[in-house]
Amino acid sequence: MLTVHHLNNSRSQRVLWMLEELGVEYELKRYERDPHTMLAPPELRAVHPLGKSPVITDGALTIAESGAILEYLVDRYGEGRFAPPHGASPERVRYNYWMHYAEGSAMPPLLLKLVASRIAGAKMPFFARPVAKRIAQTLQSGFIDPQLKLHFGYIDSELSKSPWFAGDTFSAADVQMSFPLEAASQRAGAKQLPQVRAFLERIHARPAYRRALERGGRYDYAD
């Protein structure tokens, strides 16, 4: 049976959602973040050398990386659903683009914002705190926040063209893009953008999304 190695409050929630949309039976193995470092537990390294989630095992295959997992699931179990047909159609080109954009372009500034906030609040000798805080604030105001505004303004504009990322039909690209938009809603105020907000409302109302939340446990990005 297909197994999802699921880390709480993580990108692997997308994998559960995709499986619920597909109607594929799966086993769920839960892992909890370290409450102090928020890192994945060392047990995940027994599944994949990088020790991160999401990871799935399906027979002899072990697959990591959200985009690769979603593409595998759709190809293996989709029966033509959740992706435009292979080829050079505008829908397929958009589908491929957003599948890669999610982690390649949307997530880096969000990760930098998280790192900068942790630098600013890190425990360190008192004489170093002002310098660290000033560096974090300069990085955030001079680079991170402008990049977030650029990227999520662009996403909002693109969503005004069609209800879903690949066109008029829901696809795995929408599942892949869900995490950056949910994270940006929490960390960067992206929920104030009208098309982003409407997209989040659409996905959160899907029955398969709700079932995935019930299976996966705590996921702070869904509100």
UniProtKB/TrEMBL annotation:
Cite the SUPFAM superfamilies for this sequence: GST C-terminal domain-like, Thioredoxin-like
Q: GST N-terminal domain: which residues?
A: 1-81
Show the InterPro entries listed in the entry.
Glutathione-S-Trfase_C-like (IPR010987), Glutathione-S-Trfase_C_sf (IPR036282), Glutathione_S-Trfase (IPR040079), Glutathione_S-Trfase_N (IPR004045), GST_C (IPR004046), Thioredoxin-like_sf (IPR036249)
Which is one Pfam family of this protein? GST_C
The EC designation for this entry is 2.5.1.18
Gene Ontology molecular-function annotations = glutathione transferase activity; peroxidase activity
* Keyword Repressor (UniProt): no
Catalytic class of the enzyme: transferase
Sorted keywords for this record are: Transferase
The UniProt entry's GO CC annotations, sorted and at most eight, read:
cytoplasm
Q: Which catalytic reaction applies to this protein?
A: RX + glutathione = an S-substituted glutathione + a halide anion + H(+)
Residue ranges annotated for the GST C-terminal domain, each copy included: 88-223
Q: According to its UniProt record, which protein family does this protein belong to?
A: Belongs to the GST superfamily.
Q: Tell me what this protein is called.
A: glutathione transferase
Question: Which species does this protein come from?
Answer: Caballeronia grimmiae
